[in-house]
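so i finally got all the pieces together for this one. its four components total, 464 residues if u count the protein bits. some of the lines might not be protein, just check the labels. i wanna see the whole assembly predicted at once instead of chain by chain like last time, that was a mess tbh
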Amino acid sequence: MRQEEIEQVRHLPLFASMEDHNRHELLKGAFLQRFPTHVELIREGEPPDFLHVVVEGQIEVFSRYRDRETTVAVLGPGASFILAAVVLDKPYLKSARVLSAGRILMIPAETVRAVFAQDAAFARALTQELAQVYRGVVKELKNQKLRSSLERTAAWIIRHDAERGDTGRFELPFDKKVLASRLGMAPEVLSRTFVTLKAYGVKVDGRRIEISDRSGLTKLAAPDSLIDDPVT
Amino acid sequence: MRQEEIEQVRHLPLFASMEDHNRHELLKGAFLQRFPTHVELIREGEPPDFLHVVVEGQIEVFSRYRDRETTVAVLGPGASFILAAVVLDKPYLKSARVLSAGRILMIPAETVRAVFAQDAAFARALTQELAQVYRGVVKELKNQKLRSSLERTAAWIIRHDAERGDTGRFELPFDKKVLASRLGMAPEVLSRTFVTLKAYGVKVDGRRIEISDRSGLTKLAAPDSLIDDPVT
DNA sequence: CGAAGCGTTGAGAGCCGTCAAACTACGTGG
DNA sequence: CCACGTAGTTTGACGGCTCTCAACGCTTCG
């Protein structure tokens, strides 16, 4: 990795507090790799070779079972993935593919574990990172088990709007097909859900979403900070 | 805590590798408390006060939303819970109640964070523990999103039988009501699912389960180590 | 221009939840 | 020891949610 590239990633929470020479150790064996759309970066069941960090672009994390497939998450810059598999040296539980082209920082799994064993600050950063993502999955599990498709969709719209500054209008960051899978429903169901949401003041035109009756939508979704809030 | 009680918990993976004086520090402020059935130990939304470790008995971890409720996990001896909330000092995402009476080790959250900041071995143990439970929730999310009720129930039976030594017969460890919630369905649905499973050689009599056609059941459930295997 | 993929819509079926009633198991108090 | 109440479980009826299959329009791209 070039010095300039290291500068781009050293401020990520995962690396920020660690000792300089350990960060150097960690990053000197790393690659910053470009990937085109559709490439499958990792495949569930395989042993972990690299810790991946999204630097640019969008990554879809998904999982297969029989002939089905579901999207677990869509990651943007700053997010790392398959950290737990790397730490425990156990097979990936999820696959990942490039949704929109970008660059991925890849750190050899062996190096991550070695530095983890040496650098206490890094170990603590990993703990915090894992605690964070753990809570994220728990929220997603609650979202799935406790809400209907309509509620999940409404809640997603409110949350996504909030992340974009509560302007009441935004563009879908990826295909509806992916959103449907992410929300745990068939594409046809999402399509019909959008139709239903018209009555709640949600206008959908292609990728453009507009919220005209926030209170009605909020009443429908019943947002809950213990499910929807990304920071709590 | 008495010395004798400390002996009972010091060998848990969470405490095994840490320095003696830090373990002492951690445990000296801890309580080993008895709780009767039905008591609600923690309530989602509240700030974390103690790290809880099950020493004896059964704990149901669940979550509420609107007038609904779902069981996230049922924990037995050796399991800790709400570790992530304690580490990050953020509100509990889940509630917990006593399913069958027992004893809980309660370590003040403040102490956990203090020792975490001091003892590198403890920090690493936390990382591993969190990585482990993280993977557990991911598997559960896949289980929910990728399988039908029938498949989840069949897979649960196979897995639970395997944990008991593949004898082909075992007793439900808790009420069917709880199992239904754990598996993500209404009690009535579980009841009907058991009826359907008769055709696959599963006999249900009260709490007694018997598997007579393992291959048929396996074909139905399509067990997947990346969903069902507790150690992978 | 044609092919391929996405999104929408319709039709139909199956899965799942709710409500209600009846039955069972269990523990408590008389 | 029995009567009773409570909670868990089962069953039926019903409706709604969600999935699948299929057809069609639209956009994109080679």
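Chain B has two domains: 3-144, 148-228.
Chain B touches chain A through 47 residues (CB under 8 Å).
anyway lmk what u think
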